[in-house]
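Notebook B, p. 112. Complex prediction, attempt 2.
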Amino acid sequence: MPHLASTTDLLTRVQPASIPSKREKARRAKDLAKILFTAGIILAGALLYVWQHIQIIRLGYSLERLNSELSALMQEEKELTVKIAELKSLGRIEAMARRKLEMAEPTPSQIILLSSDRQTQAQVPPER
Amino acid sequence: MRKNSSSVMDARSTRVRTLVIFVSLASFLLLTLVRLFDLQIRQHKRLTAGAIRQHQRKIPLPTKRGSILDRNGKELAVSLQSYSVFAHPSFVEDVSQTSSELSSLLDIPEEVISKKLLSQRSFVWIKRRVDPDKGKAFLERKLPGIFSVEESKRYYPKQELASHVLGFVGLDDKGLEGLEFSHNHYLVGSTQYPVGYSDALGRIAFREAEADVTLENCDLILTVDETIQYIAERALEKSVARSKARAGTIIVMDPQTGQILAMADRPAFNPNHYAAYPPAFRRNRAITDCYEPGSTFKVIMAAGVLEEGLMSPAERIYCGMGGITLNGFHIRDYKKYGWLSFSEVLQNSSNVGAIKAASRLGKERFNDYIRRFGFGERTGIELPGEVRGMVRNPRDWSSISLAAVSIGQEVSVTPLQLLVAFCSIANGGALMRPYLIQTIRGPHGEIIRESSPQIIRRSISPATASTMTDMLIQVVQQGTGRNAAIPGYTVAGKTGTSQKLEGRTGGYSHSKVVASFAGFVPAHSPRLAVLVTIDEPKIGSWGGTLAAPVFAEVAQQSMLHLETRFREGDPRALGGRRADAPGKAN
């Protein structure tokens, strides 16, 4: 015959744990919500911290890429400046004018002066 | 009872297992703490330093030399990023194939490259400072064992133009001559090394804020006008070639301010390939070479005589029968002049007349005027290697020194010194410090230094300067300087033809001369002063026939250029920055 626990035994062993009161339930739910809320805050903070670092690194890569592009463009601009300076060289222009356009310097008889140093002096007051 | 003992056993077993797990976990935790203590506390410094070494990198920012620009902002010297190619011969897989490819890319003979690649050295340069186009083509090939590093390369887009003023830079990017040398510290600046943090692949993830530097690479803006420089060089080149001369020098200055508008020598060199020229080609003769100025120096004597009130331009001097003998030395004139006015003495460049006028001045006073005009001292121009010239103390003068110096012998000057003296007459008596650098501009466009006209001292009074100008106008209108005349302008100037000293005999050469002309235009409101010297011409020998036409060509074209710029709205073209009023001279 199986041993049967008395009703009093059962009440004393089971009742306090398995049937919490309504007030107790509400308190536990409140505690759980507090814990979850706190954990959520901590987790959000941690995620924000990590996200911030990831953003810094991502923007750093982006900045480096832009810096490289800037350097390359500046170098290209400088190269083009040098090419323009070479092409605008007076010796080259004179050679082209003589060779390709068959231009020549005017002889003294071909020059008619429209200004003299009298005019120049009028434009710029004499120093003394 | 049996059940009770079994449950007791179970409880004990559970406790033992719990204890074992606890001890294990505690031991593990303890070991972890010990290890953490070891890493974080005991080895902290060493490991932190190691981590920094792995992650931090100093990023060398590419610092290029500053540019050198003319007064209108045209580039005369510019730096570009180039590639220097090197090899680790032990990593080269196929020497023959690599040599062949490099040869076609870099324009170097294949055998030269093969020899380098077969050497036992661990590192060899293949070619320094390859042009950007070739460098980029090389990078695309990715040849095993061949690498490149970025370096700065100096370009002179105008080739020979103003090469003696600019100078050049060596392989290590340091200036070796000219302004590149004297202003190297401004041009090169200082290298910045901001700290960056790299990832496992070596890429820079982010960098710290760039450190401020006190001096970065600056640009030099010169007083030189590219067009006038070109006009001057072209005219000098033609004259030196036509007369088969050994060398030639030309300087163009603004007499009101002391700004150098052009300075050139022949023979010249291309600073892009400076090593291909002998050192004599690279010397700036305008400031490093002295010569006896000959008759152009009579102007200094005449200015002294007039300033002291010893003679008037109309006073007549008997110039004898074409010569004078002093202590056994016979000094001749070009022809028998007879009676000449003091003005005509200068006009015809009579040696006899000049000697007689100088005798009234005396050696002490003459020496004083020579010094006042700046001879025997450096002008202070911003170029390296300027010499003082040679002016002896009157105590050391011989019995004929006064006569010799009055006609430009026994004294040696640099072309620049002589032109500065002429500028002093042109501007009313103020000896101006010549200068080449108008502005030193910082990397962000800020002005680091700006030059302004500076009067060294007063050499003569404005009245004497005006009289001298009138006398010099007569030289060009009726005297030896007729070839310097320019239609539409009044020109003032003086010719010079000086015999050179023979090194072996110590006497004057009959075949080697320096032909020169110095003058300014427009005479009464001068904007340009020009000096031309032609050294040892083989065809022709007179300053009036060799140097004066060069003056005329340069002065005329330069004046037209300045007038054009003035009309186009450049107020500096016909005036520039003025010197202080002559009365403020020190």
